[in-house]
Amino acid sequence: MTTTIAFANQKGGVGKTTSAVTLACGLAAHGLSTLLVDLDPQGHVALSFGLPKSPALYRCISLDEPLEGLTISPRPHLSLLCGDRSTEKINRQFARLEFPDSVLADLLTGLCFDVVLLDLAPSFNLLQRNGLYASDWIVIPTRLDPLSLDGVDEVMALMRELETGTKCNRGYSILPTFFDRTTRDTLTQFRRLVDEHGEHVWPPIPQDSHARTALDDGQTLWDFKRTTPAMEGIKSGRHHLGGYRQVLDRLLEVIHDK
Amino acid sequence: MTSDKSSESLDPAVSSLLSGMEQRAAEAQLPRRERERLVKQRLKIQARRDQRATYDLPPMLREQLRDLAENVGVPASQLATLAIARFLIDYRANKIDLDEYKQPSRSPRYDWNLIFPEELVPRTKKKKGGN
C-alpha cells in the first residue's frame, strides 16, 4: 500500500523542497520505492538533483501521458516527477472541473510505489489543495518566525476544510527548520509551537549553510556531506537532537504505522 | 487532528532540546558564581553520561534484575554489565543462536524481531506460593 506524504506551508522559504528532497533520498536509501512529485511551478526539485526543470507533471495530469515515461530516476528506488512553470496551467484545467480536489488522488491510486512525497508550492491554489487532499500525512516545515508559523495555521485550516474528503484522518507533523537554538526568540517560538501542537512537533533541523552550498552544486545533502548539522542535528552530550537523519526515523515510523 | 500537549507525549528529542534551552535561559539570569557552579555540575554529569545507555526492557526482566541486585547487595547496573558481557562472550563462541528467536519484521528499519519464549523472558508475574 502506498503512503502519500505532503510537504506544505503557505509561507515560502521554509525548507519544504530541501526537506522533501533529503527525506525522499533517505527513504530510497532504506530500499523503499519512492516517488517525489514537484507540485511547485518553481520546479526546484529537479534543480536540487542538478537536473533541468521539466513539464513532466503538466504532461502527466493535463495531457494524460503515462507516468512511466515521464519520471526520472536519479538513484536506486527513487523516481522524480518534475515540474516547471507549465505546472501553473494545471490549475486552469482544474478550475473547469466540478470536483477539482481529487484529481491528483485518483492519479496516484494504484501506483506501485511504497511512498509518494508531494512537494507543495507556497500558495493554496487548486493543485495544492489536490496535494493535501491526496495525502495520508502532512509534514509542515516551518521557520520559527511569526510569518512562517502563520503559514502553519493556514495549512491546518485547509486540512480541516478538506477533512470531509475520503482521507479524513490525515495525520500531521510540524518540522522546525533553520533552527538556531542560541536565540531567545527561537526558544519563545519553539515553546509556543510545542504548547500548541505537542507531540506533532518533530525534532528540528538546525540552521546550516551547507544546505545552500549543496544546492549551488546541484547535490542533495546525502551526496554533499552527510555529517553536516542539518543531517546530524544539534549535539547534546553524547546525543544528537534533530537533523534529517532523526526526522527520517520519524517518517519511517509514520510509514510503518500506516 | 487532536493534540495531546502533555510533556510525556512530546517527541523525546523535542522535549530534551526544549528543556535544555529553557534551563540555559534560566541560568543566564543567575549571578556569576551560581552560573559557574552549574557549569561545573553539568561537566560532571556529562562525564558520567558516557557510561549510560537506554534500551527497552520487558518490565518483568527489569524487576528480576532489581530484586537480584537488592538480594546480593550490588548495583543493578553492574549486574546488567555482567549479563551483557557474558552474553557477548557466549555469542562470539557460538553458544547462543539468535536464529531460534528470529521472526521477520514489518518495520522498514529492521529485518527481524527477536521473539523470546515465556520461560526465557516472562511477560507476566508468576503467582507466589502456588502448589
Description:
The complex is a heterodimer of chains A (258) and B (131). Chain A has a single domain (3-257), classed as 3-Layer(aba) Sandwich (Rossmann fold), CATH 3.40.50.300. Chain A is of the alpha/beta class. Chain A has helices at residues 16-29, 44-48, 56-61, 87-95, 103-108, 126-134, 146-162, 184-197, 209-216, 221-224, 229-232, 244-257; strands at 3-7, 34-38, 72-75, 78-81, 115-119, 137-142, 171-176, 234-236, 239-241. A seven-stranded mixed beta sheet of chain A has the order 3-4-2-5-1-6-7, with helices on both faces. The model of chain A has no long low-confidence stretch (mean pLDDT 92). Chain B starts with 11 loop residues before the first helix and ends in a 17-residue tail after the last strand. Chain B is mainly alpha-helical. Helices cover 50% and strands 5% of the residues of chain B. The model of chain B has no long low-confidence stretch (mean pLDDT 86). Chain B has helices at 12-27, 32-49, 59-72, 76-92; strands spanning 102-104, 112-114. Chain B is built from four helices and two strands; from the N terminus they run ααααββ. Chains A and B meet through helix 7, helix 8 and helix 12 of A and helix 1 of B.
Shape of chain A: globular
How is the largest sheet of chain A built, in terms of strand order? 3-4-2-5-1-6-7
Topology, number of strands of chain B: 2
User: Which CATH architecture of chain A is right?
Assistant: 3-Layer(aba) Sandwich
The greatest interface here is: A-B, 40 and 24 residues
Rg calc of chain B: 21 Å
Examine the coordinates and then state which fold CATH places here, giving the name of the CATH topology of chain A: Rossmann fold
From the alpha carbons, calculate the radius of gyration of chain A and give it in angstroms: 17 Å
Strand content of chain B: under 5%
Question: How are the strands of the largest sheet of chain B arranged?
Answer: 1-2
Number of helices of chain B: 4
